[in-house]
Amino acid sequence: MRLRVVFCGLLLAVVANVYAEERPVGLDWLEIAAFAGHQTDYSGVFIYHYDNRVETSNIIHVAEANGEYEKLGSLDGPKREIIHHDGQVWVYNHHQLVHVGSRQGRNRFPSLLAEQLAALSANYQSKLLPVERVAGYNTQVILFQPKDNLRYTHKIWVHTDTGLLLKAAVLDDKNKLAELYAFTQLQIGGKIDRSWVKECDSVLLHDNELSSSAETAKVITTTNSGWVADMLPSGFKKTMEIQRPMHHGKHAPVTQIVFSDGLSAISIFIEPNDGDEDDVNGLSSRGAVNLYHKILDKNLVTVVGEVPPRTVMQVLDSVRYNGK
Amino acid sequence: MKQDISALMDGELFEDEAENLLGRLTSDSAVHKNWSVYHLIGDVLRQPEHIHSDLSAKVRERLQDEPTVLAPRARAVKQNIRTYALSAAASLSAIGVVAWMSLQISPEVAPQMAMQHIALRPVSMHTRTNSNDYMIAHQEFSPSMDMNGDASYIRTVSYSRDEVVLQNNPSEKQPR
Lengths: 324, 176
Fold this sequence. Notes:
By secondary structure, chain A is α+β, with helices and mostly antiparallel strands. Chain A has helices spanning 2-21, 25-39, 114-123, 195-207, 213-219, 309-317, and strands at residues 42-50, 53-64, 67-74, 81-85, 88-93, 96-102, 124-134, 137-146, 153-159, 165-171, 177-188, 221-222, 227-229, 237-244, 254-260, 265-272, 282-286, 289-296, 299-305, 319-321. Chain A has two domains: 2-210, Clam (outer membrane lipoprotein receptor (LolB), chain A); 220-321, MucB/RseB, C-terminal domain (Phosphorylase Kinase, domain 1, 2-Layer Sandwich), CATH 3.30.200.100.
């Protein structure tokens, strides 16, 4: 009940917005989906298809008074279960729930900032497609077509009643599937198992002193590294530039610069090259994410993004140091 | 002799030779053993659950240790072939699902996907150029999965299968 009221309220606000600013309606659906994902209680099974693999997982998401709780579990392959709440992460390790630390810098709702949406509308053409049925629910289908061939097409299926994202696909310029995420079974609202919520609360209570979030916050710092990339596709704006630990702390901290066009992102990682690699020139990919790296002077430079391989390579080739 | 037994099993011996061999099966223990083994191998290949001999345990063990390598590739670092092989097996059966799902996207895509070979994509497992680390680090700040809420950790869950190491050092304190 509460959900419906909230959702209708948002829908009204969004519709009012549309008339006020004449913003493409596709973007409104994005915002609706982002909102619904955080506010809705749901439990279901989804598949994640990338490359030639299909992986099935289950997910339970509940919005409690003290925030959201989400449990994600693998249904094939080795059993893995992850719980998120309030920026913290828990993992089941040999049937014991273990607190493993915090996530950094996730954008939360209202997560789609005005600039991000503006960037999106400048770089993608959004188009409403006919309603389709997914996991037994009617969904509005929205296509985000890039205005150049340096990024992927995104397509989303949003439940018309609750605004929940039920299916999302990334397609390349040949309309070939790069990545797909889709619910196959879904319960929205109603009686949802919450027994695990109390469990992770009790583990956190005991782990408070050992919580690594404070320590992690100390070692991640914003920076002005002096590195630039000249050939970023138009519309990609820098969203952050940080110094962070990586590789399980076994090497020097890494500079990470993130650029986004509102729908996808590109990260550039720069770190000193200490001669540890035996094969450096290479492109690898997973689903919609492509990665390319090379040695530049005395540095290892890696570019990662949900953009086509040619874009990742183009960006990497244009990285240079512009500092003092 | 082994050839004869195998021919007998395949029904390729002439009647008189078969009779002769069958006679020896009952009397000669070495021949009998070979007969058992060949039948066992046949059983195992057809129905691993219904094995009924002592030899079975060892044969099953050997079979299980053989990895199902679909696309051999060189690795610089030790990897968990079995985990990868298990995922590959899952992909094989799931490809039908995928083809069906892709019909939702575009009819042109489906035939392509149905015909694609199941190739294991090599993940760079070299010391520092491990793609996993970078992809996970990138995911933390990427908006593209933000609208899926926390489903961005789908990728983390997938990545974790190939590299069974927790990203942060977990505080292994037991809950009281």
